[in-house]
Design a protein that fits this description.
Oligomer: single chain
Order of helices and strands: HHHHHHHHHH
Radius of gyration: 41 Å
Structural class: mainly alpha
Helix content: over 70%
Strand content: under 5%
Length: 338
């Protein structure tokens, strides 16, 4: 009957996937570093980061607690098995009923003390699991990601248009700048800045044909931009228009900077939320595996509960069988994780 009772509770404890447990913890730490960088840079949703920063810390504490509890439990169970073996050997050599009763009392105390110790570790691990089991409602995140992706694309389209406009302004000013430099080199300022620039006047400056063509091109361009197209063009007009174009170019560059900022902010917010989701995914994986350790402790306590057994012999046999299996489960978990 004793062996039959033991066999009912002699189920193995499913081993934990320690590699995935360690990897998910590492992914959480890495994603937290990324999220922190973006949060500091963007100042975006600091409370959200605070929540997940706390979760990663809880996982770290839970990891330490699991390793410590497993190591301590393994040692205590191994020590208790040795003590039980010693008491059983002593009992075999005794015929005095009073002494046998005293030895059985010592065995019960050992088993009670072991159960109490395992319960303490089990409760601690249950608390750790509770701290990392609060799932994140991620239903709104895809909407935010889609909005940020849309903002990024709109800004990219606007940026492309602004860059085309900027290049046109720069090309326009370059023509004027080249003409101004050519005229200054020819000594136009020695005559007068308000001197009318006509083909004959430009030719009189002694410019080479390509230089004359360059200046006349600038004059024609300038006429198109002036309100009074019939107005004669002077050297001072070129200087003023060049300055105006410089202001337009500077304003265009500022607009481009704004669009670049929108793009970077949108990308940063997407990466921030993606890092948060990675933490959440890794947390869920970690919690699922961690729950296996909590279940194993509960399984051991259930399988060795005194109420299941009618006498000390069946209880002791069940405890010894379960302890051996549980120690085998605890052995790899008790080792420090890399």
């Amino acid at each position: 009957r004793s062996m039959k009772v033991v066999s009912l509770f002699n189920a193995a404890y499913p081993p934990l996937d320690l590699a995935t447990l360690s990897a998910s913890h590492g992914q959480m730490r890495g994603a937290r570093t990324q999220a922190h960088g973006w949060q500091v840079k963007l100042g975006y949703l600091p409370d959200l980061f605070g929540r997940f920063d706390s979760i990663v810390k809880e996982v770290g504490q839970g990891s330490s607690a699991l390793q410590s509890a497993s190591q301590t439990s393994k040692y205590e169970l191994e020590t208790l098995l040795e003590s039980l073996e010693s008491l059983e050997q002593e009992r075999l050599g005794e015929s005095d009923p009073l002494v046998i009763e005293e030895i059985d009392g010592d065995r019960r105390q050992l088993l009670q003390r072991a159960a109490a110790t395992i319960k303490v570790h089990s409760a601690r691990l249950q608390g750790c699991l509770g701290n990392i089991s609060d799932s994140f409602d991620r239903r709104l995140v895809p909407t935010y990601l889609a909005d940020f992706a849309h903002d990024e694309q709109v800004a990219k389209d606007q940026l492309a248009e602004l860059q085309v406009q900027l290049q046109a302004l720069r090309d326009e000013r370059q023509i004027l700048s080249d003409a101004v430099a050519t005229l200054q080199k020819a000594g136009i300022e020695d005559l007068a800045k308000d001197i009318e620039l006509t083909l004959s006047k430009v030719t009189q400056l002694g410019l080479a044909p390509p230089e004359i063509q360059l200046v006349m091109m600038a004059i024609e361009q300038l006429k198109k931009t002036l309100i009074d197209a019939s107005k004669s063009i002077a050297f001072i007009d070129m200087l003023r228009e060049s300055d105006k174009l410089k202001l337009k170019i500077d304003a265009q560059v500022e607009k481009i900077d704004v669009e670049n900022s929108i793009i970077q902010a949108s990308l940063g917010r997407m990466k921030y939320l993606q890092a948060i989701l990675l933490i959440e995914d890794s947390r869920q994986t970690y919690a699922d595996i961690y729950g296996g350790a909590v279940n194993a402790y509960q399984q051991f306590l259930t399988a060795t509960a005194p109420a299941k057994f009618t006498d000390i012999e069946t209880l002791t046999n069940a405890f010894k069988a379960q302890a051996a299996l549980f120690i085998r489960f605890l052995a790899p978990v008790s080792m420090p994780m890399r």
